[in-house]
Amino acid sequence: MQAELEKLLILQDRDQKIRQIGIEIKTLPQQRKNLEAQVAATAASLESLKQRARQLEVDRKKLELDVGTRQSTISRLKTQQYETRKNDEFQAMGHEIERYEKEIVQLEDQELELMEQADKLRAEIATAEKTASAGRDSVNRQLADLEEKTKTLQTQLGELKNERVQLAHNIDEEVMERYERLFASKGDAAVVAVEHGVCTGCHMKVTTATAVHAKSGNEIVSCEQCGRILYVTE
Questions:
Q1: What is the DSSP pairing of strand 221-222 with strand 191-195?
Q2: pLDDT value at position 1?
Q3: What is the DSSP annotation of 149-207?
Q4: Is the alpha carbon torsion for 150, 152, 155, 156 positive or negative?
Q5: Which residue in 14, 149, 193, 196 has the fewest CB atoms around it within 10 Å?
């Protein structure tokens, strides 16, 4: 049975590696999604800045049109002012002209403020574009690495599974069934060592008789507590 235990330990090593690689492969799609989400978030942030810039330009042009409208009105009022012969009409139109001129000053101040905001925003956009470009390059490299890692892990997994098939053929069928049930249910190891009279699987003390039988290696011995197959290291 000692030889059978050694075979089980080798098989278990391969099964643990297969399980670990399988877990790692399952995480790869999420890693890919996270990287793609980074690019999308950066692109969205950049687009938000550009949208603000476009809106500023729309607002500035509206102010420009409003200024133009008032300038046209002032020109019309001045023409009418010199055509009228009534003093009260002349003065009333003069007041209107003054009001429109004040509005033009206010509008031009607003336009100037928008232009300053636009200049700052252009600088932000330039910086954001560089950041986005560098981020895309970084993510593309990481995605390529992930793709390569996926291929490597798939190759390793295939090789381990093939090796496992060969190892399983050389193990007694009943022992194999027992091992596979344990490995599936315990989630970590089906074959564990006894150290200082304690099962290293469940960390409970085994009986002296169990420890002696496990040490002899003449039979498959199980832990009374967890059912794992036991062996004793020399």
A1: unpaired
A2: 57
A3: HHHHHHHHHHHHHHHHHHHHHTS-HHHHHHHHHHHHHHSS-SEEEEETTEETTT--BPP
A4: negative
A5: 196
Q: Is residue 151 part of a domain?
A: yes
Distance CA 128, CA 142 (A): 21
For 109-140, write each residue's pLDDT tens digit.
Answer: 999 999 999 999 999 999 999 999 999 999 99
Query: What range defines the domain where residue 74 resides?
Result: 14-171
Instruction: Give residue 151's pLDDT.
Output: 97
Q: Count structural domains, the chain.
A: 2
Beta bridge partners of 23: none
The CA distance from 47 to 40, in Å, is 10
Q: Average pLDDT of 161-176?
A: 95
Q: Which residues, including other chains, have CB under 8 Å from residue 89's CB and lie 6 or more apart?
A: 81
Within this chain, do residues 161 and 186 fall inside the same structural domain, yes or no?
A: no
Residue 9 in domain: no
Q: What's the burial of 1, exposed, middle or buried (CB within 10 Å: 0-12/13-18/19+)?
A: middle
Residue 228 main-chain phi, psi, to 5 deg: -65, 150
